[in-house]
UniProtKB/TrEMBL annotation:
Encoding gene (name): minE
Name of the featured protein: Cell division topological specificity factor
Organism: Plastoroseomonas arctica
Entry keyword annotation includes Transcription regulation: no
HAMAP family: MinE (MF_00262)
Matches recorded under InterPro entries: MinE (IPR005527), MinE_sf (IPR036707)
Gene3D superfamilies in the record: Cell division topological specificity factor MinE (3.30.1070.10)
A matching Pfam family: MinE
Length: 91
């Protein structure tokens, strides 16, 4: 890397390749989770209910978790019916 490259904003090839490799690993891990684990969504729902229940009294039967996969993006939607102001007391 020469002095002029510093002022032109060029990055070393190794740094760019490392960043690309890291991004690819993240994408592949995300794809593996979605394809190979049938228990992913029920397990995620149970863990989310447990975390929210630590702070708010909720009915686990009134929790809906939806995972929509389409194209190059996945969307996770979580609907939790919260109690009125009296039920929001911290545990």
């Amino acid at each position: 890397m020469g002095w002029l490259d510093i002022f032109r904003g060029r990055k070393p090839v190794a740094a760019t390749a490392g960043a690309a490799k890291e991004r690819l690993q993240i994408v592949l891990a995300h794809e593996r989770i979605g394809r190979t684990r049938e228990d992913f969504l029920p397990k995620l729902q149970a863990e989310l209910v447990a975390v929210v229940a630590r702070y708010v009294a909720i009915d686990p039967g009134k929790v809906a978790v939806n995972l929509d996969r389409g194209g190059d993006m996945s969307t996770l939607a979580i609907e939790i019916e919260l109690p009125g102001p009296r039920g929001l007391a911290a545990r």
